[in-house]
Amino acid sequence: xxxxxxxxxxxxxxxxxxxxxxxxxxxxxxxxxxxxxxxxxxxxxxxxxxxxxxxxxxxxxxxxxxxxxxxxxxxxxxxxxxxxxxxxxxxxxxxxxxxxxxxxxxxxxxxxxxxxxxxxxxxxxxxxxxxxxxxxxxxxxxxxxxxxxxxxxxxxxxx
Length: 159
Prior knowledge:
The protein has 159 residues and is α+β, with helices and mostly antiparallel strands.
């Protein structure tokens, strides 16, 4: 298994481009949870993505794997593909709908919205439900102390 991973490790960007040229978008997302939550989290995230474009009759292909194992849990890395529309604005709407559905499923399962890739603007709306009032106020206090001029990633983690 490790040898197969090593041989194909750098293929995804090329596959992404080939899929786009064939009329499909591909994206990934990840989270992390305790081992006991991983099976239900996977099911919830995959269901949210699979059903995410159902209102327009589009199917979404979804698959996940556990990565970054830790003694108390693991990252769940999910890849999903969906058909592109003729209209670029519709493609963005489809992606936003899928990203939102998956992010809500992650938050509902009490997974981390960012894991190792950080929060950024895409995940910012889901940070407050994950961290809670105390967690956000703690982060804000740390930023005020260590970055009083707001130079590090302004508006992307705390406001």
